[in-house]
Amino acid sequence: MEWFESVIMQHSPIQAVIVISVIIAVGLGLGKIKLWGISLGVTWVFFAGILAGHLGLSIDPAMLKYAESFGLVLFVYELGLKVGPGFFSSFRKGGVRLNIMGLLLVFLGTGVAIALSYIAGIPMSDMTGILSGATTNTPSLGAAQQALQQLGLSANGAALSCAVTYPLGVVGVILAMVIARKMFVRPSDIVDGSHDDDDETYIATFVVQNPAIYGRSVCEVARLSPGHEFVISRLWRGGDVSIPTSETVLAPGDRILVITTAEDVDPLTILFGEHESRDWNTGDVDWNKIDSSLTSRHIIVTRPELNGRKLGSLKLRNSYGVNITRVMRSGVLLLAKPGLILQLGDRLTVVGQERQISKVEKVLGNTATKLRDPNLAAIFIGIVLGLLLGSIPIAVPGISAPVKLGLAGGPIVVGLLIGRFGPRFHLVTYTTRSANLMLRGIGLSLYLACLGLDAGAHFVESIMRGDGLIWIGAGFIITLLPVLIMALIALRWARLDYGSTCGMLCGAMANPMALGYANDTLPGDNPAVSYATVYPLAMFTRVVIAQLLILCFC
User: Fold this and answer.
1) Alpha-carbon span 84 to 416, nearest angstrom
2) Can you tell me the distance from the alpha carbon of 103 to that of 534, in angstroms, rounded to the nearest whole number?
3) How buried is 61 (Cβ within 10 angstroms: 0-12 exposed, 13-18 middle, 19+ buried)?
4) Count of Cβ atoms closer than 10 Å to residue 216 Cβ
5) Sequence-ordered list of residues with C-beta below 8 angstroms from that of 452, at least 6 positions apart, any chain
6) Which of 270, 275, 360, 416 is in the most buried spot, having the most CB atoms within 10 Å?
7) SS3 helix, strand, coil % of the chain, rounded to 5?
8) What is the CATH number of domain 202-370?
9) pTM score of the predicted model
10) Strand partners, 236
11) 485 has pLDDT over 90
């Protein structure tokens, strides 16, 4: 027993790994338990850490800080890498609106904090810590502590009040989402949405009945309808089927199979003349039985030298007489436009003769085993760049201390940029979905375990203090009330779906634990995309506000 006690209690690298691993294992085990149909999932790791800290377990402070920081960086970077493509397209689909609502939530919470400071007589130095804990925003706490030190004031109260209110800050957002779902959400508000750089595809058949395009080539017809992109997969004429090229001339009565987007169906109906009623988008169509002379196959891009190249630059249609109709990327079907930037792991739908498709297979690779190993170099390069970006001081007028994006802000911004633009620079960013989820899970679990272990040592003692319960009550109000108000506004006034609303709330509250709950309980990646859209600006704003509160009210 003496040996066992020394391994568990005496600070060492082995002891740190054991303690953190036990906390994570216990927390994840408890996360599988559901009460009234609700499970907090990975958030239980945080509470397991608090319990361990309360029971007297601890690890070396330097190791604790390292594991906590590395876990947070790994989680937010992998999150940014995953949703990078959808982040930029989200601005075309309402990202500005999401950020406006995120900022409204930030300002609303700040207003509630200022009001409670006067009502409950809480000094602003302590209230800033409460606000940081209630919004689970440790960078804002650091900014407040720095401002207090510059004014020659003690920062201990802010740190203690943040530690006390942080647990309910985590639970409060999750509770608010549960209440909002029960009270405000309709079945139509829950959608299985997926984001990517382009719209999803839609397949339709048209009959050429428009005299204005008789005798014109496919290329010329495309120029007549700018802004409406399409790919013609097959052309039936007089009982024969062929794969049209850009020089193929359309004739009256030609029947064409077109891959486009749902929004472009009506304009293309006007362009071609007639839209047939058959639905090709049911998912049960056997494309190889449509006609006997052409075959449709899926080929995976696995050759690294193709990463970042434009689809049109491969000249597959002219060289092999095949047509690329669609590209599946991360579960989303994209239109195979010539300007589409290819990425490793893209699955191309190729239509043509079997012999020619086999040649295209050699060009693209189609060796799935090559994709199983993640490109770890790109991950660590991105983390380094993110940390460097997060450490850059940004001068804000009126604030003496510069503001930094920090451990969370820098890596998520770089992750977003690399996830979106990495392939353009031939940087291989592909990882399987399971690998991405595992890295994010490891990072978040490390962060929560260390955060809870650090807060647990003085948690009960802080609660038992005279001000402890007042701090907890104020923090819970700051968490719950603004989130519920903004959830109602987002769902009913802005008409966001529930997944995007949850992501916006989690991002504005800087709450990755609540995001984990949303991801576990909702379909699609709308919560993650909205979180990444809102988080950088909201986090930066909260850091500035924390310093302004100290400078203006202390």
Assistant:
1) 4
2) 8
3) exposed
4) 17
5) 23, 45, 46, 47, 48, 49, 50, 51, 52, 53
6) 416
7) 60, 10, 25
8) 3.30.70.1450
9) 0.64
10) 241, 255
11) yes
Residue 525 burial (C-beta neighbours within 10 Å; 0-12, 13-18, 19+): buried
Closest CA to 234 of 291, 183, 276: 291
* Average pLDDT, integer, range 111-117: 93
Coil vs helix vs strand at 115: helix
Cα of first residue to Cα of last residue in the chain, in angstroms, is: 53
Alpha carbon distances (Å) from 110 to 60, 153, 501: 35, 21, 20
Beta bridge partners of 235: 242, 256
pLDDT at 200: 65
Nearest residue to 178 via CA among 526, 448, 483: 483
Q: Which two tokens stand for residue 503?
A: 């992501």
Kindly state the percentage of the chain with pLDDT values over 90: 13
Supply 228's token pair: 């409406």
What DSSP letter does each residue of 26-49 carry, written as one string? HHHHHTT--BTTB--TTHHHHHHH
Q: Please report, as a single letter, which amino acid is at residue 142.
A: G
509 close to 534: Cβ distance less than 8 angstroms: no
Q: Shortest CA distance to 44 belongs to which of 68, 64, 21, 28?
A: 28
CA distance 491 to 498: 7
Annotated domain spans of the chain: 202-370
Nearest to 547 by CA among 399, 410, 406: 399
- DSSP letter at 345 equals T
Q: Which of 56, 64, 54, 55 is nearest to 20 (CA)?
A: 64
Cα 82 to Cα 418: distance, rounded to the nearest angstrom: 10
Distance CA 156, CA 58 (A): 20
SS3 of residue 201 by DSSP: coil
Cα 149 to Cα 159: distance, rounded to the nearest angstrom: 13
d(CA 409, CA 55): 33
Task: Let me know if 241 is exposed, middle or buried by CB neighbors in 10 A (0-12, 13-18, 19+).
Answer: middle
Determine the pLDDT at residue 207. 93
**Dist. CA 196–CA 203, nearest whole Å:** 18
- 448 pLDDT tier (thresholds 50, 70, 90): confident
Inter-axis angle of helices 512-521 and 498-508, nearest 10: 170
* Three-class SS of 193-226: CCCCCCCECEEEEEEECCHHHCCCEHHHHHHCCC
Strand ordering across the sheet containing 332-335: 295-300, 347-352, 323-329, 332-335
How far is Cα 161 from Cα 511, in angstroms, rounded to an integer?
Answer: 18
The first and second tokens of residue 447, run together, are 């962060």
Residue 289 in tokens: 């039985």
For residue 267 the two structure tokens come to 């304009």
Predicted confidence band at 192 (pLDDT cuts at 50, 70, 90)?
low
pLDDT tens, residue by residue, 366-412: 776 666 666 777 788 889 998 898 888 877 666 666 667 777 678 87
- Side by side, the strands of the sheet bearing 240-242 are 240-242, 231-237, 255-260, 202-208, 273-275
Rg (CA), the chain: 27
Q: What is the pLDDT of residue 403?
A: 66
- What is residue 143's predicted lDDT score, i.e. its pLDDT? 65
